[in-house]
Write a structure and sequence with these properties.
This protein has about 500 residues and is α/β, with parallel strands linked by helices. Helix content is about 40%, strand content about 20%. It has two domains: about 270 residues, Aldehyde Dehydrogenase, Chain A, domain 1, CATH 3.40.605.10; about 180 residues, Aldehyde Dehydrogenase, Chain A, domain 2. The site of nicotinamide-adenine-dinucleotide has 29 residues, from helix 8 and helix 9.
Length: about 500
């Protein structure tokens, strides 16, 4: 059986060890992925450090040209990359292409690096004195990514880190690692010097070695909250800058004045798309006032029209979840929901007997804080409806939640929308937009347990995170200005 190799110093490197990689639609093992041992981690860090030195001195136009070419190669290889994602992740081809398109936006943003890396200049801050600032690369970046966006999240990190002049070591999810290797090959084809971008496969131990390694300067992590918290704590304790994005529980508030057909469409798209395995998926619809019954009816009508099947089948609306263990965990939340007084309106767990890791759409009525189906991130095709009497109760529920990634409001009232966006403690807000993932020129990040560290990812904050600032104060005195003055320099 095929072993998915590392990509180190510009080439595929067969590795040892091996974790199974499944096709979630069939439940079969289709490959094994190598697992780096400690000495390989040392080797790849040494390679990246060496490459980082010359890449940091590459001209901005050289970096721009490479990224432009890379962008073009991603477009040309979109079908192949999408097929690879569908095979290992399970999402539909349409969804995989959508993910790639959102990743591509980040490469396009990074192509503007000459603008993003501009410093400031102030002339004559004091007599004969000028000041300018520059941003320099941090060095070697470890990029650690989750299973649910095998192309987009690596591109969130990689595009801006490379544009800023860093070398990158990507440790992709061991569940769907193949696409990362192809990203490495396409970057090499685009002209990126060997060793500047490396893919190192592995598990939790590999991540621990990377985050504690003295040769790593910065860590971008995206994954579940417990691991994000650990990576942040261990990485910062080891003296690195760390941005660690975690899990989510995203609410969608529906006010009584909302168009309920539009709201039901949005709940279906954002609740069940990609089998609910998106960090910006809606998992709780908060029905305000008397809208719950009508909304549930409209959602169930739409659920009747959904088809669950393999991602390669163009008639499938969503595919399987990532592993058998994850499927069983999701089924557990649905079957135990009645113990918490929650009504199961639609039970899709019957599909769980198929060899693929399928769960059909599930709809729960009456989720609320203190119930497992509300408190935990389920990360599956399970939408909960919470019933509240007032707008204020909806906001209080959202703000008391441990997560603060995304939130949406459905209303026709502009004033309520404006108030809502100011009152919720959440990083990304959609007004009549159910999955408000910011475009690449705005940064992405949640609040509370959805993000550890102060830096959001990609966009302007990406360039800030991947660079260090320097400020240069300059004076060109004439020999006639020679004098001894022990006073503290002032601008007056
Ligand atoms: P995960 O935390 O299990 O794994 C993420 C990465 O961490 C993988 O590369 C994995 O190998 C590594 N890892 C796993 N356990 C580790 C440990 N104990 N120590 C060190 N490293 C470890 O996450 P996942 O299941 O792959 O992805 C789903 C999660 O990611 C969900 O919680 C989802 O909400 C979250 N996510 C968040 C965002 C965001 O932007 N906030 C985006 C995508 C996914």
């Amino acid at each position: 059986m095929r072993t998915i190799p590392h990509f180190i110093d510009g080439e595929r490197v067969e590795g040892s060890g091996g974790l199974p990689v499944y096709n979630p639609a069939t439940g079969e093992v289709i490959a094994h992925v190598a697992v780096a041992d400690a000495s390989l981690v040392d080797d790849v860090v040494a390679t990246a450090r060496r490459a980082a030195l010359s890449w940091a001195n590459s001209s901005l136009s050289q970096r721009t040209n490479i990224l432009f070419t890379f962008r073009q190669l991603l477009v040309e290889h979109a079908a192949e990359l999408a097929a690879q994602m569908t095979e290992e992740h399970g999402k539909t081809i349409v969804d995989a292409r959508g993910e790639l398109a959102r990743g591509l936006e980040n490469v396009e943003y990074a192509c503007g690096l000459i603008e993003h890396l501009k410093g400031d200049f102030s002339s004559q801050v004091a007599d004969g004195v000028d000041v300018h600032s520059v941003r320099e690369p941090v060095g070697v970046v470890a990029a650690i990514t989750p299973f649910n966006f095998p192309a987009m999240v690596p591109l969130w990190m990689t595009a801006n880190a490379l544009a800023s002049g860093n070398a990158v070591i990507l440790k992709p999810s061991e569940r769907d690692p193949s696409v990362s290797v192809r990203l490495g090959e396409l970057l090499a084809e685009a002209g990126l010097p060997a060793g500047v971008f490396n893919v190192l496969h592995g598990n939790a131990d590999t991540v621990t070695q990377l985050i504690e390694h003295a040769g790593i300067d910065a860590i971008s992590f995206v994954g579940s909250t417990p691991v994000a918290r650990h990576v942040y704590q261990a990485g910062t304790a080891a003296g690195k800058r760390v941005q660690a994005l975690g899990g989510a529980k995203n609410h969608m508030v529906v006010l009584p004045d909302a168009d309920l057909d539009i709201a039901a469409d949005a709940a279906i798209n954002a609740g069940y798309g990609a089998a609910g395995e998106r960090c910006m998926a809606i998992s709780v619809v908060v029905a305000v006032g008397d809208v719950a019954d009508a909304l549930i009816e409209k959602i169930t009508d739409r659920l009747d029209r959904l088809t669950v099947g393999p991602g390669v089948d163009p008639t499938s609306d969503f595919g399987p979840v990532i592993t058998k263990e994850h499927r069983d965990r999701i089924v557990g939340y649905v079957s135990s929901a009645p113990d918490d007084g929650i009504k199961v309106v639609r039970d899709g767990t019957g599909l769980a007997s198929s060899p693929g890791f399928f769960v059909g759409p599930c709809l729960l009525d009456g989720v609320r804080p203190g119930t497992k189906a509300y408190d935990d991130e389920i990360f599956g095709p399970v939408l909960g409806v919470a019933r509240v009497a007032t707008y204020a109760e909806a906001v209080a529920m959202i703000n008391a939640n441990q997560y603060g990634n995304g939130v949406a409001l459905f209303t026709r009232d502009g004033n309520a929308a404006r108030l809502f966006s100011r009152q919720v403690s959440v990083g990304m807000i959609g007004i009549n937009v159910p999955i408000p993932v910011p475009v690449a020129s705005y940064s992405f990040g949640g609040w509370k347990n959805s993000l550890f560290g102060h830096s959001h990812i990609y966009g302007p904050e990406g360039f800030t995170f991947y660079t260090r600032a320097k400020v240069v104060t300059t004076r060109w005195p004439l020999p006639s200005e020679s004098q001894i003055d022990l006073g503290f320099p002032t601008t007056r």
